[in-house]
Amino acid sequence: MISIRRSRWIGIGWLGCALMLGILLFLPPSFRTRAQGGGGVRLALLTDPGAPNPFGPYLAEILRAEGWVAYDVVSPSSLSPTLLQMYPVLLVAEIPLNTTQAGILRDYVWNGGRLIAMRPSPELRAAMGWNTGGTLSEAYVRFEPGHPLVQGLVTESLQFHGVGDLYVADEVEVIAWFYQDRDTNSGFAAIGRVTRGNGWAVFWGYDLARSVALTRQGNPDWVGQDREPDGILRTTDVFSGWIDLERIAIPQADEQMRLLSRLIREGLAAAAPMPQLWYFPNGVLSLLILTADAHGNPQSYYEGELASIESFNARVTFFLTLNFDSCPSAPAPDSVNAWRAAGHTVGIHPYVGTDEWGNDFRDFRTSTMRTRDRFLRCYGPPLSPTIRTHQIRMGTGWVGNARVHAEFGFPLNLDYYMRGDVTARPDGTQAHGYLTGSGLPMRFVDLNGEILPVYQQLTNIVDEQYMAQPFYPDWRRDADQVIAMMDAGLNAYYSAFVANFHVDYYN
Ligand SMILES: [Zn+2]
Questions:
Q1: How far away, in angstroms, is 458 Cα from ligand 1 center?
Q2: From ligand 1's centre to the CA of 421, what distance in Å?
Q3: I need a surface site. Which of 26, 354, 395, 468 has the fewest CB within 10 A?
Q4: 272: number of Cβ within 10 Å
Q5: What is the set of domains in the chain, with CATH numbers?
Q6: Residue-level pLDDT at 472
Q7: One biological process GO term for this chain (predicted)?
Q8: What is the pLDDT of residues 360-415, one digit of tens each?
Q9: From CA 385, how far away is CA 412, in angstroms rounded?
């Protein structure tokens, strides 16, 4: 793996990086408890797991991804003026509130609190004096270019998923507008702020949590549909017709999360500063993570790829198929141990279902389990905690792959991948960027709001896009676009870029 810090390239091991990310993103509850005991927590999330919109708890995942690791979660039933006094900033999920609860929030703002509310309930809108004029769904938002809080963030309109309430912009400090389509301003505010008494309140006219989840994980209504029709259900199928290819070069979900962080930071600044952890280890601006899928290749292919990678002082994770009962002749176990000692890692790349020659590798779960067991039998531990499924096949359900990976101990899933028709423009050229709207690792969330112990990280640099073949005739053009994407990652779109350079081609 290579870390990027401005013009400096540093090679460190992927596993070390994963562990550091884990430390950054996954601080144990004891940290939060200690912080609370010391009066250190100044950020609270008001959510209700029983609310009709189940994605409220996912706002906590957004906070963690953005480096806000010390926060408290409070429920509507525990709301009181005394409780809220502890928190200069209160983030409110899309939850029902009665008039009494809305009144407590109104008084909180008047007394100096900073409130940010996702898709506020009618009672909260009334308490704040906010007016709406209808709704729109599956449309766009655009940050107000003149607002100081959005400077340095993206200026193009961005997709959001779900329903948005159209806010009347009069007497509101507009931070973002709803757009009916990519180019047409609705004239209504999507995100806006008002000052009330000594505090302020922000309405976020759509639910950021739901929108981020659906941007990252695709349309759940399309699960099981072969929308990119090739006879194989892939993770990409739920994105076909979901991602606007004119916006794919932007990490759309990440930019919207960054705006939330700016609001939180400004709200906290009025009270006292609070640490916000950076996305990546050692303050690097972006990461390049090298992976290599292998499909029963000869030993010389691995050695060829390693020679190339080590010439850049980089490290790689090999993913092996191991689809048959006997251990493969290559790579040799002694070689695998030597690679590990040199800082490389080796994991699995399970075949699932039936291939074009009629080999039946069984269902997703069985195949993943068998491949893992064979790996441990043939090579022994350590097995890479990351995994990529052959042909990026989709298991059962919206988070089916992640459920299996959780069961068998793979906390990082690389099955979301830029390839094929889903990212091809009508003229056949390949669109590069962020299929999932994100360059950041975040845990999967299911439709019931359950957060799974598996991180999703997009693979968006894929060698097949640079090789001379009918679908990618102009490899130089594509290479230039990916280089531009990585440059943008150093300037604003801070990302982990995962590359796949197949072992197969090192012949
Ligand atoms: Zn494969």
A1: 16
A2: 17
A3: 468
A4: 10
A5: 41-269 (3.40.50.880), 283-505 (3.20.20.370)
A6: 63
A7: carbohydrate metabolic process
A8: 999 999 999 999 999 999 999 999 999 999 999 999 999 999 999 999 999 999 99
A9: 6
